[in-house]
Amino acid sequence: MSHFWALYQTNVEFALVGCVFALSIFVGLWSGVLSVAPIAFAAVSAFAIARISTDHPTWSLYVLLIIGMVFGAVFAYLSSFIFLRLSSHYLALATIALVLISRVFALNLTTITGGMNGVGLMRLISFPQLVFILVLLGVVFQRLRKSRFGLTLDALREQPEVTASLGVDVLKIQRVAFVLAGSLGGLAGVMQAQLLQYLTPDSFYVDLAFVTLASAVLGGAYHWFGPIVGSLLYAALPELLRPYLGSSRHIANGVLLLIIMLFLQRGVIDPLRPLPFKSKKTESVVGNE
Amino acid sequence: MKMGKLISILALVAAPLLVSGMPVAAADAAPKPPKVGDVCTKNGDVDGKLFCQLKNGKLKWNEPVLPAGEYKLGFEALTSGAAAFAGVPLAQGVRLAVAQINLTGFLGKGVTIKLIEQDSGGSAANGIAAINAFKAQGVSGVVCCALSSQAGAEAPILKAAGIPGIIDSAVLPGLAQPPYMYRPVILLGTSGGPNSKLIDTVVKKYKTKSAVVAVTADNQGMVSDKDTFVESLGKSGVKTVNTVNTAAADTDLSGAASQITALNPDMVVNSMLGGPGTRLIKALRERGYKGVIVSNYGIGDQNNYTIGGSALAGTIFPVIYFPASPANAMAKKFAADYKTYSKEDSSIYGAQGFTAMMLLASGLKASGDGNPVNVALALSQITRFNTVYGPIAFAGGQGFLAKDVSPSIVTWTATGTQEIWKP
Amino acid sequence: MQLLLQQTLNGLALGSAYALFAMSFGLVYATMGVLSVAHGAIATWGALAALYVTNEFGVPTVVSVLAGVLFAALLSVSVDQIAFQPLRKRNNSLGYIITSIGVWICLISVGETVTHNAPQTFPPDFISVGKINISSIYVSAPQVWLFIMGLMVLVVLHMSITRTKFGASVRAVGFSAKFSSISGVNARLIAIWTAAIAGATAGLVGVIGGSAFDNVSMALGEGLLLKGFAAVVIGGFGDVRGTYIGGMLIGLTEVLGSQYISSSFKDAISFGLLLVFLVFRPSGIFKEIKFGAAR
């Protein structure tokens, strides 16, 4: 067992951070917004923390994480004024554009990001701390799910017009969700930076954005546990298949995405799917996307 | 330290030719493993007993002998992903070295290397995972880091684990950090080095007055090459009329080619990655540019001829290794062995992989016990090392062509071979 | 002055490549609501198919180009039927992106394995008819063809979408598959045809572009995808004319910006333009007229 652990610990650690990324995308989806902007905010936080932790090596990990979340939240808040007034199609495109542009900034703001050289930092985070953060997020999300805010988000995703007609300020709720997603993105960015110990402009780019989005939806965008399962599954599959497929193992992820989306279209974790031993429920109205 | 250095030089140059039979130090209680930084001192009375012995008043290098057995070495490989065109020959070179070492008994009687190879696909996260996996399997050393971004991510892990790493290909300045990170990759772009010499020679011959430099601006290795080129051009009295920036992922270079052709400089200096550089040169020639084209060594990869064809003919560049390298017996043997082993022609990448593994193996041999800390210490004491490029000297963990060795200046021919440039 | 003309011509050629790709990408997005990130890979695969046919069978260029175009069309239809059609019935718009990501991963994986990650290139003089070489103005033959094809495809697409019954059906299906079926449109057949046309166009730009840029690799498709995506946003995707102009605009600003402003900020210029449009005019140059049901 310990041999297995030593071989796969790194993969597990990166997968856990992937879970946090996926959760940040999930928050957007929960409010009916398809946005990969948290990836760009992750980049901002990561580079900021790299600089800060190098200048202040004594600051504790938790301080850095909180600073990262604040950066993510602030940038999310500011950009929400641009993005949230776009309608859904354009919003998705705009957030992809934001990620594309963030790389250009990362490449050219050499004093902050080190340009194409990149920038290094010390790793302060330990594996138990990673798990602890994820558990904490799970608790927060479970509370959210049952809270008034969570129920509003559910309603907003399923029937935005009805929700608006009930007097809910849709824009405000979406902004709150956008900021929450941004702070999670910031958190994930700092954690990823800690694991990599070296950031380059390519560290947070469209490939990460698409993979994270895919993981979140694969796992199920209707319950917070879904993105966690999705990320773990997405990370585990190629490693399990490495002995058989070698360098072409990534194709397995593509096939996985296709299979899951075709047969379990709401994702692996779906709160509305009847459990195997229960009798089949008829699909409720809110089940129709 | 002078004496110790001289003795290390002799020992390590002789090592590839001998199967060691020298007696081991007196078999009293096993010597404490030396701390990194321990050196031979005049009276020989230090923890560096594994390497130094005072005999008849003289300090003698004590050729360690590895106990028989299998020693594990890790190899973080780049056999998938965008840079696999370089990573695959690198891997072939590494594997060839291991095969030869095991076959010839280079490390000693009954000593074999088990190569643990893990592909990282160029991703830093997978690279870190590979290093941790090697650590778990108890390797004595690692060959790694074909990409600069991976080197940055993997170095801290190796240092923390006390395992030495040999960088096989990355060119970002400053990566070599003894005692745990070494780089035998010859950086042609160092000031006054091969790229500078290339400029000096070509300028003299063609009496160049003006030049344009094209560079892959989002790749640090290319940018520092460019800086050296521009510096040398200045020193030779050539005016750098313009620097044209391109990006590694650029699809269309016709704009850049038109820009350069319009300026019509006497010389174009190509400081770009191999593929884009080839395409630029082809576009320049198609647009009727007739001047001299000088390039970094990336242009020498055989695959570029497939892309560029006869447009590459006459492009002048420095190499430290190419399959027809003259007068270096080790290079000739390597070229032949590589062809037999992998069924393909060797290249600079194959040579880099081979060199990295030979260096690591030499450190392993000199360690005397395969303990990674001792391997690191042994590597830190290597000052001169025989390679397919000729002898190289180490300073601060970084390899340089020995002063008496010059790179070859070669040029592409219209038929796709490379020959020495005859000015 | 000559340099300005030369670079403008280069920009027009590059812009045509972006425009061609953007039109095919936009076709899929506007009419079927599918943001397919796999589309770039389809373009590359068209080029790979043409390359294979050329190298294995030594046929004339026209045949190779047709082979590439056909292959890409077939690939696009297969992708549509395997990855998108099942989702159409369930009206799940998020699912399309995810399945397209899945297809993208598969196509890239297989492509990298097949080409051993080494960039390929068409034989020299693969496209040689049409080269312009007057005084010091040089436009390579593939560049000329990119421009010609760009205009032709624009005209054909615009005419068919706005003037023909087929085009009306395409727009109907794009608006609502369910309601268009009620009017007697075979939504599935329309989807197949749209996918085929989009795939064919992508294949076309893959082959000619691959020849113009001397670069047949997965990177070609990805580069086209990102810039094509920017063109679709800037030009608007409801109307192919806008998409075409968006593509040309990006191509021209890239080349002229490199020449006259700075070559180091090329990407910054394109994506900066993208950001400006997103903030101030997200519907693009030609506004997409949206009717409709609450969505």
Classify the fold: give the CATH topology of the largest domain in chain B. Rossmann fold
Relative strand content of chain A:
under 5%
Detail the poorly predicted runs of chain A.
283-289
**What structural class do the secondary elements of chain A suggest?**
mainly alpha
The average pLDDT value of chain B, as a whole number, equals: 81
> CATH-wise, what's the superfamily of the largest domain in chain B?
Response regulator
Content of β-strand of chain B: 15-25%
Topology:
The complex is a heterotrimer of chains A (289), B (423) and C (295).
Chain A: H1 2-30, H2 37-55, H3 61-83, H4 88-108, H5 110-113, E1 119-120, H6 127-146, H7 148-158, H8 160-165, H9 170-196, E2 198-199, H10 206-219, H11 225-245, H12 251-263
Antiparallel strand pairs in A: 1-2
Chain B: H1 2-14, E1 52-55, E2 58-61, E3 69-77, H2 84-104, E4 111-119, H3 124-136, E5 141-144, H4 148-161, E6 165-167, E7 181-182, H5 194-206, E8 210-216, H6 220-235, E9 239-246, H7 254-263, E10 267-271, H8 274-286, E11 292-295, H9 302-308, E12 316-319, H10 329-342, H11 348-367, H12 372-380, E13 384-387, E14 390-395, E15 398-401, E16 408-412, E17 418-420
Parallel strand pairs in B: 3-4, 3-5, 5-6, 6-7, 8-9, 8-10, 10-11
Antiparallel strand pairs in B: 1-2, 12-16, 13-14, 14-15, 16-17
Chain C: H1 2-32, H2 39-57, H3 61-88, H4 93-115, E1 132-134, E2 137-139, H5 141-163, H6 165-175, H7 177-182, H8 187-212, H9 218-235, H10 240-260, H11 266-280
Helix pairs in contact in C: 1-5, 1-8, 1-9, 1-10, 2-3, 2-4, 2-8, 2-9, 3-4, 3-8, 5-6, 5-8, 6-8, 9-10, 9-11, 10-11
Architecture overview:
The complex is a heterotrimer of chains A (289), B (423) and C (295). Chain A has a two-stranded antiparallel sheet. Chain A is built from twelve helices and two strands. Chain A has a domain at 16-204. In chain A, 72% of the residues lie in helices and 1% in strands. Chain B has 423 residues and is an alpha/beta fold. Chain B has helices spanning 2-14, 84-104, 124-136, 148-161, 194-206, 220-235, 254-263, 274-286, 302-308, 329-342, 348-367, 372-380, and strands spanning 52-55, 58-61, 69-77, 111-119, 141-144, 165-167, 181-182, 210-216, 239-246, 267-271, 292-295, 316-319, 384-387, 390-395, 398-401, 408-412, 418-420. In chain B, a hairpin with a 2-residue loop joins strand 13 (384-387) and strand 14. The longest helix of chain B has 21 residues, at 84-104. The radius of gyration of chain B is 23 Å and the shape is elongated. Chain C is mainly α. Chain C has a single domain (2-280), classed as ABC transporter involved in vitamin B12 uptake, BtuC (Orthogonal Bundle). Chain C is globular, with a radius of gyration of 19 Å. Chain A binds chain C through residues 29, 34, 82, 86, 88, 90, 92-94, 96-98, 100-101, 103-104, 107-108, 160-161, 206, 210-211, 213-214, 217-218, 221, 247-248, 250-251, 253-258, 261-262, 265, 288-289, and chain C through 35, 37, 82-83, 86-87, 90-95, 97-99, 101-107, 109-110, 112-113, 226, 229-230, 232-233, 264-265, 267-268, 271-272, 274-275, 278-279, 282-283, 294-295.
